[in-house]
Amino acid sequence: MSAPQPSAKAFVPFVSVETMMRLVHHIGIETMLVELAGAIEADFRRWDVFDKTPRIASHSNDGVIELMPTSDGEIYAFKYVNGHPKNMAQGLQTVTAFGLLAQVSTGYPLLLTEMTLLTALRTAATSAMAARHLAPKGVTTMAMIGNGAQAEFQALAMKALLGIKTVRLYDIDPQATEKTRRNLTGSGLELITCNTAQAAIEGAGIITTCTADKQYATILTDNMVGAGVHINAIGGDCPGKTELHKDILLRADTFVEYSPQTRIEGEIQQMAEDYPVTELWQVVSGATAGRRDQNQITLFDSVGFAIEDFSALRYVHQKLSGTGLSQDLDIIADPDDPRDLFGMLQRAK
Ligand SMILES: NC(=O)c1ccc[n+]([C@@H]2O[C@H](COP(=O)([O-])OP(=O)(O)OC[C@H]3O[C@@H](n4cnc5c(N)ncnc54)[C@H](O)[C@@H]3O)[C@@H](O)[C@H]2O)c1
Q1: pLDDT digits (tens, 9 = 90+) for 8-66
Q2: In angstroms, what is the span from residue 87 Cα to ligand 1's centroid?
Q3: Residue 123: CB partners within 8 Å, gap ≥ 6?
């Protein structure tokens, strides 16, 4: 006897990497970055309603695998994400991810999707959203140190949300810089290849560090950082993995996503427990000032927080509606009688 066909209740919309790419092009990448930043900012404004916990990390000598859950009471989301800086040498991505959105009232999934692309998009959208509150007014030049998988997304988000016109590129691997330059040619950005990090930050009002190395690295030292700049530090996001010399943090006003997680994972892991930080939602909600004056060094110590993934997942779920782009995956068991799970199995013999 053939297995009974599952009913509609069994199916969960699934977004493959190919589908995500089609969705991004359907919306337009810069439009999507702007809309994602809006979605994330809106959720940061209702910070209090979310369940919050530092992400659950499983560390090894090679990297980390993390689970990032949150809920607003109606919708639940989690992301599975890894960070393996040595992967690239084997032709694998440093960061890959997938995630799920579910209805709190039934626990039934609403969406299962790739999140490697979506993570790059949401990270860049969050960076630009933070920079809109923290970067110097009228900034037009950004240094982009670390020209790997995240780099183009960061550059385009800063263009779309802040009007960045010039990006000064540096990577220890010139091939990475060449790849980024090639990918961004025709984007409307002026691209300048630099031979050192020091050269890259010349005249830049925003310095983005986005390198991957599973160790304490010093991409920027204190003497490199002039008054008034905004540092968008993306790559220090794990215990034992930082990018900035701690003296920079002594001069900077530091903004974080969720401090209990950032104190474990961010640049501030180098600092004492009472090192002062401001959570970005406080700035977004207007409770605290972002940039106060022209000489202030602002630092967004980004590690990536579950609420950003929640916002991104919900955004994708809304955008998919009516496009016919997702596939249906039969991943929820759906016996005719909910208590007859075993009977459903038997009938499938
Ligand atoms: N904060 C967040 O939300 C978030 C999200 C995604 C990724 N990340 C982190 O961002 C970093 C970059 O991710 P990716 O996917 O682009 O990684 P990637 O491996 O694709 O690229 C990293 C690049 O950094 C370069 N690099 C390494 N050391 C350097 C140095 N000393 N100076 C200049 N360049 C150097 C490498 O050559 C490589 O091109 C990773 O550390 C990742 O964990 C953070």
Answers
A1: 888 999 999 999 999 999 999 999 999 999 999 999 999 999 999 999 999 999 999 99
A2: 12
A3: 150, 153, 154, 234, 302, 304, 308
- Closest-CA residue, ligand 1 atom 42, reads 235
| pLDDT above 70: percentage of residues in the chain | 99
Q: Which long-range contacts (CB under 8 A, 24 or more apart) does 196-200 make?
A: 196/170, 197/143, 197/145, 197/170, 197/224, 198/224, 199/168, 199/170, 200/143, 200/144, 200/145, 200/168, 200/169, 200/170
As a whole number of angstroms, the distance between CA 167 and CA 158 comes to: 10
CA distances to 71, 96, 267, 295, 315 from 49, rounded to whole Å, are 8, 28, 27, 35, 18
pLDDT beyond 60 at 1: no
- Interval between CA 123 and ligand 1 midpoint (Å): 12
Q: Which two tokens stand for residue 179?
A: 């790849």
Q: What length does the chain have?
A: 349
> How far does the centroid of ligand 1 lie from the alpha carbon of residue 243, in Å?
10
- Sketch out the chain's domains with CATH numbers: 8-117+307-341 (3.30.1780.10), 126-304 (3.40.50.720)
Residue to mutate (ligand 1; options 168, 231, 234, 269; most atoms within 8 A of CB): 234
Residue 302 CB less than 6 A away from ligand 1: yes
Q: What is the pTM of this model?
A: 0.97
pLDDT of residue 5 exceeding 80, the answer is no
Chain segment 279-322, per-residue pLDDT in tens: 999 999 999 999 999 999 999 999 999 999 999 999 999 999 99
217 lines ligand 1 (CB under 6 A): yes
Q: Residues 292-296: contacts with CB within 8 Å, 24+ apart?
A: 292/253, 294/136, 294/227, 294/228, 295/227, 295/228, 296/227, 296/228, 296/253
Q: How many CB atoms lie within 10 A of CB 286?
A: 9
pLDDT tens readout for residues 60-72? 999 999 999 999 9
Residues forming beta bridges with residue 231, ordered by sequence position:
207, 299
Q: Which residues are catalytic?
A: 237
